[in-house]
Amino acid sequence: LRRNAGEPEFHQAVREVLESLGRVVAKHPAYASDALIERICEPERQIIFRIPWIDDAGQVQINRGFRVQFNSALGPYKGGIRFHPSVNIGIIKFLGFEQTFKNALTGLPIGGGKGGADFNPRGRSDREIMRFCQSFMTELFRHLGEHTDVPAGDIGVGGREIGYLFGQYKRLTNRYEAGVLTGKGLPYGGSRARKEATGFGAVYFVERMLAANSTSFEGRRVSVSGSGNVAIYTMEKILDFGGRVITCSDSNGYVVDENGIDLELVKEIKEVRRDRISEYARLKGTGVNYIDTGCIWDVPCDIAMPSATQNELTGKDARTLVKNGVVAVGEGANMPCTPEAVRIFQEAGVLFAPGKAANAGGVATSALEMQQNASRDSWTFEQTEHRLAEIMKNIHDTCAETARDYGVAGDYVQGANIAGFVRVAEAMRALGVI
Ligand code: NDP
Asked: How far is residue 132's CA from residue 96's CA, in Å, rounded to a whole number?
């Protein structure tokens, strides 16, 4: 705790994993030797840097950039970059720690890392975003490489930003090293289905969890929070599976559309106009509520898929959802439910899919993008989505079987933590004390 003072999100993420490891160490004492657990909690490398850039008014602005290269036992560091004013080293460490186990669960050869900056893209012009991305990469490029560290997007970093980051990397290194970033656009080495992968994958995971309990999305009322990359493609796949999405949100408020959210309109507002979700209610008119006080989780639903940010669903929200009859919760975001909320869901018998497993489809498809780049190939949408669906099925089954093997059947949190840990721990033991 002393070494990581003032980093509550990192403590929260580490505590959750450590709470699952008692059973593992009891069965395999070797995992506790050579300070393996202490080593797994300590990032291999942490980079903090200055990002100077010039805004449209000609003023010099300064932000702080981060890259935490957490664990490379399984492959090059892999994990997204977040641009949000709340970013600090503790948030990036929590995300990098989670990423290490998530990436292990995919079964693919990728280590864990995460990065970002305390830059607020909201209200910034396209040119400001470009200059910021170029300055960010001007420092970061020396720490990256397709065999070293491969970032992707996260909150505030989508296809546009990845394009600017890749452009600057290419310019600085004089190398067309497509495999150094994922989430790229299709014209310059991107993978089909990468944009959709996190949301689609989360719904594939929840669908399989529901099927294992003899139910499905069909006819269900589903609440989704957020209206960014993960939320939009979560909504799309829920509709494919016959569910009815009734909410979505941004950090200012949420909309409730009892007729079912009009996904094409959300895409137009968020992806084309880059506008706020309040526009949805304004354009739809009657029958749609926009609420900028109160809480999205007060809306009764059968299934909740928090897809915005960490700790957005509290113990109080969990009690409300349980009272309103929620049957399943799937985390699209990273750690969106507080520990108290998770406990309340599990005690109430609500099916609970942790983000570490449920949202792994994005990074898994990023690894497929790396495969396509390495072989200078480009797969069809159907082929890529098929691989994604298979990977999510395997992650689900691995978590479920691991939970059963360790005497906690039905507990996907412990199943994911244990299965992810064991894969990383096995590799670290083989590599020696490094
Ligand atoms: P986006 O930036 O595309 O969207 C984020 C959404 O969440 C926006 O609607 C945003 O609203 C809302 N949001 C962000 N911060 C807050 C906040 N503090 N309070 C309320 N709402 C907030 O990000 P993504 O969709 O890519 O990421 C969403 C989550 O999914 C994150 O936890 C991310 O780590 C996780 N994730 C993303 C992956 C990916 O492939 N993109 C992969 C795996 C996990 P506003 O516009 O008002 O800020």
From this structure: 23
